[in-house]
Amino acid sequence: MVRPVRLDDPSSVLGDPRIDDIVARIGAPGGYPAFEEAVRRAGCCRRPVRLRGRVTRVDGTASRVVFDTEELSDRVLLKACGSRRETLCPPCASVYRADAFQLVAAGLRGGKGIPQSVTSRPAALVTLTAPSFGPVHRRGNHGTCHRRPRRCPHGVLTCATRHGAHDRLLGQALCPACYDYEAAVLFNLSVSELWRRTSIYILRALGELAGISVRQIGRIVRLSYVKVVEFQRRGSVHVHAVLRLDARDDEAELPAVFDVALLVQAVALAVRRVHAPVAGDRGPDARRVHWGPQLEVAPITEVENGRARAAAYLAKYSTKSSDGRGLLDHQLRGELPDQVDLAPQLRRLVEEAWALGAQERYSELHVRAWAHALGFRGHFATKSRRYSTTFGVLRGLRREWRVARENGPSGVAPDGADQMHGGELEIGEWEVKGMGYATRGDAWLAEGLARRLTDARRSSFEDRACAWRSVA
């Protein structure tokens, strides 16, 4: 976040080096309007990639340059970083979150190339949690953290505090000496395999409940899903997923026995039974990981509101990081520095992951490369192939819409990729000149523009909502 300049304090204005940058920007070729247009085209990205190059169209032996950054005011093209993390780039994360919503919603109510028939198929919203690795500070249902005292080798564990929603103690171990940090990191390492086996066990449980053999159930029913991973305050991964039952044959109807009630029962049965070997362990003595006892399975029955709420629920988790302030958004090149203001619980997990990475048995897993993610090595948002559309398709549709709106059917929107255009081949030649804005003044102006556009969109949405309510 850029420190704001206080216009009521002349010393802060005159002493701020960004003022010189802003004056230089106003006096540059094209002035502020050219800069604003470049920032808008980059989606007001907080740390855009600066590209230099050109786009050439080739038709047989003839070629012509249709775009060249030398013609731009700064001689560079700003391209959005595309980060999904809210803490790294809020504008790009908002686009990712919107795409995640469309991806989940299309699999529940159709659209984006998905048939409308999916609205009649059984679906459920599932939340799977990690097991306990030791007591932590929490917001209990009865109000207090841990009302009943419990003993450990290091004393009595109790906390009668009513923690607020933003209390930094939440998720911290009551007794760090007793908390099993190694097991917590190993669970995060193994959760992707545990989820893969869970999807298999759910299909088997469906067959068992319906009286169909394991061999036959796979020929009748297909389990489609989309899942998003979230880190709890204690640093352990839990999974939010939307599950949908489809007929294996796309042209066939799903048998009536496979309804949403059967799906809910199958999920509960499979989660109780499933287990997976700890990542890095092999042989009959391999340790196993299981899901925690807290399981939520909510049938999705409403075609409109219920399915939209489920899509929004998953989308809001798609841009979160392993910590709430973005301190662990990058891979670590060494041990975590002492000056990083990280919660003790997360710091211990990072240190444990770094230590496990030095052990021979985990050498193939490259654990240290994932120490910033507390050992989790998978993707934060994944789906089965048949569930819905893809992020790539959504990005392509958005690009086509933007080009058609701004430049017409024959417009050029350089993005670095070679493509066919009206029988001609477009070739992009690009060189990366850097990442982020060239000056602190540019970064400040871009952040202010992003804030104004966000406020304008919010105001427009509220006006439309008020107009709709008045008509209703």
Q: Assign the structural class, choosing from mainly alpha, mainly beta, alpha/beta, alpha+beta, or little secondary structure.
A: alpha+beta
Proportion of residues in β-strands: 15-25%
Q: Low-confidence parts lasting 5 or more residues at pLDDT below 50?
A: none
Q: What radius of gyration results from the CA coordinates? A: 26 Å
Main sheet characteristics: 5 strands, antiparallel
Q: What is the number of helices?
A: 11
Shape: globular
Distance between the termini: 41 Å
The topology string of helices and strands comes to HHHEEEHEEEHHEEHEEEHHEHEEH
The counted number of beta strands is 14
Helical residues, percent: 25-40%
Number of separate domains: 2
Tell me, rounded to a whole number, the average pLDDT. Answer: 86
Written description of the protein model:
The protein is an alpha+beta fold and 472 residues long. The protein folds into two domains: 10-78 and 408-471, no CATH class; 90-133 and 180-389, no CATH class. It has helices spanning 10-14, 18-27, 31-41, 90-109, 181-210, 214-220, 260-273, 305-317, 344-356, 391-407, 440-471, and strands spanning 49-59, 62-68, 77-79, 123-128, 146-152, 155-159, 221-231, 237-247, 276-277, 288-289, 295-299, 381-383, 419-421, 424-435. The radius of gyration is 26 Å and the shape is globular.
